Amino acid sequence: MKPSPTLTAALSATLLGAALIANAAPLKTDAAHSTVSAVFKQMDVPVESNFKRFTAQIDYDAAHPEKATARVDIDTASFDMGQADYNKEIAKKEWFNSAQFPKASFVSSSIKPAGAGKLAVAGKLTIKGKTLDVSFPLTVKPQGGKQVFEGQLPIKRLAFNVGEGEWQDTSMVADEVLIKFRVAAGQ
């Protein structure tokens, strides 16, 4: 018995839909090969410290990068400056106020191709309850069966009220902060 054209079309549409859904599935972050850090100057000396806990939700298809979406949530209390006393200090109200604002987040609003292996990303960055529009370049490359997303986002810490009171003085801790990230993710 020969299948009807309607049945064949319905089956083809179902298989195509399943393939599109499979390609649209969010990528799983490989935490062991992913990092988020902040680079800043303290008394004019460059310091780079990592956030130990963060999650990244990336929905990316290399064939359609303009349809990509991304969300990154960072546990502010996980900022590790290498010493327990410094880590406690940075979680206090004057800095991240981690008790009231335990997460910093980035949510993309647009991701556009910007050349081979490059994307232009725009979105909203929220730190310490303050949300600002940001944009930055991003590179993406396949590596070991995963996609690796790397970029740097320069911000001004005082725009997010990070460093209140006496810490607004930028002679001790510079206003300029570079958020660096490398996220490896795959199916």
TrEMBL record:
<protein>
    <submittedName>
        <fullName>YceI family protein</fullName>
    </submittedName>
</protein>
<feature type="domain" description="Lipid/polyisoprenoid-binding YceI-like">
    <location>
        <begin position="26"/>
        <end position="186"/>
    </location>
</feature>
<dbReference type="Pfam" id="PF04264">
    <property type="entry name" value="YceI"/>
</dbReference>
<keyword id="KW-0732">Signal</keyword>
<dbReference type="InterPro" id="IPR036761">
    <property type="entry name" value="TTHA0802/YceI-like_sf"/>
</dbReference>
<dbReference type="InterPro" id="IPR007372">
    <property type="entry name" value="Lipid/polyisoprenoid-bd_YceI"/>
</dbReference>
<feature type="signal peptide">
    <location>
        <begin position="1"/>
        <end position="24"/>
    </location>
</feature>
